[in-house]
DNA sequence: TGGGGTTAT
DNA sequence: ATAACCC
């Protein structure tokens, strides 16, 4: 149904396609270095975005929920909902009361425990890694995959008569004509076919539906993946990239420009993508710093050279709980114990060992709503060693450490009012922390010189809490 | 606004 | 340790 046949070469480039198509691209070209032979190699990137992920996981857990308007609730918020609920006016991050008012039949399930979502999320990433190992996670429900190599391999397998029959899978953004003589088009079409295979595999093996966007970089792939929504895919051909980015109504919609930067841009009179494109680079650099300024101004042109960075296993494990009020040490200790118990189970399953522990709090305040404070310290090595086994004997000493961190942040002799507690285990190392006794010990600079010489190693720069 | 994550400074 | 970004 989404299938569209590639247009004949003569028709290609009816609008703006004339410019980029020429640069000497024979279909047999091998090395991905097309744009005239200079500049960065052209990539093929796919962004995979699951449809209302938490709601999908809940409907798999309990099939009776299918077909009903479903919301996933955390505290007093509906954090996400299925499409039945959306049709009836429920929005993401809507207040539970507003949602129930809009949609009295709304079924709510509690989604504060992320365990099943996290597990399913990694199954998706692992499935995508089977296609190509270069997979970058973005949250629990989005992944980028660099398809450049896979596409090249497939093209080398193609016979010339198959090439003329190449078709796109899914939508073509802006309904742009496909030029089968344009190697960039060809490669993106192959990318669209791989994207379709990925979505098929996700559905067949995991029962999950989602969208995909195929383009020449992460920014464009992400933007184009959301064009046709649920369970569809779209490919962006280079000649339509300006149409895509100009379709954004505000710079805040550009991934990479967040709340703070958008506010600062607005203060400069910049609100549209065009405003940002045409704003003085010099002034922008002075206002935002050269790094942010250059990066976001490139984004405004649809340029994004950031690589797809393989996420691999997580860098940290954290659990948090928010509440209206927590104002005594006993309450704090109880909450911390709960958070830590779950974390120890997770870290145990992972196999690696955290070498740093952090406590994060949010204090009650009328204005400054989002700000958090944290304290961290190294985990004593005798505790690290016991981590894999029965964690009963580590929970008490770790809670003691966390309470010290807490008292370092909060003067418990004075009244306090917290609205969030979070514990984070990070600085994860693969079991053998010290390579002492191995040949690596003498070959690893940070171990064999810096650490032993008594100088501060860059690997050991945790803040020191007296224990 | 929840309950997570990441990287840069 | 914080601040920014992402979901």
TrEMBL record:
Upper taxonomic lineage: Eukaryota, Metazoa, Chordata, Craniata, Vertebrata
Gene Ontology molecular function, alphabetical: damaged DNA binding; DNA-directed DNA polymerase activity; metal ion binding
Span of domain UmuC: 45-258
Annotated region described as Disordered, given as residue ranges: 1-37
Subcellular location, principal: nucleus
Subunit structure: Interacts with POLH. Interacts with REV1. Interacts with ubiquitin.
Keywords: DNA damage, DNA repair, DNA replication, DNA synthesis, DNA-binding, DNA-directed DNA polymerase, Magnesium, Manganese, Metal-binding, Mutator protein, Nucleotidyltransferase, Nucleus, Schiff base, Transferase, Ubl conjugation
GO cellular component: cytoplasmic ribonucleoprotein granule; nuclear speck
EC number assigned by the record: 2.7.7.7
Domain of life: Eukaryota
Biased composition range(s): Low complexity: 20-35
Location relative to the cell: Nucleus
GO biological process, one term: DNA repair
Cofactor(s), by name: Mg(2+); Mn(2+)
Function, in words: Error-prone DNA polymerase specifically involved in DNA repair. Plays an important role in translesion synthesis, where the normal high-fidelity DNA polymerases cannot proceed and DNA synthesis stalls. Favors Hoogsteen base-pairing in the active site. Inserts the correct base with high-fidelity opposite an adenosine template. Exhibits low fidelity and efficiency opposite a thymidine template, where it will preferentially insert guanosine. May play a role in hypermutation of immunoglobulin genes. Forms a Schiff base with 5'-deoxyribose phosphate at abasic sites, but may not have lyase activity.
Similarity-based family: Belongs to the DNA polymerase type-Y family.
Name of this protein: DNA polymerase iota
Catalytic activity: DNA(n) + a 2'-deoxyribonucleoside 5'-triphosphate = DNA(n+1) + diphosphate
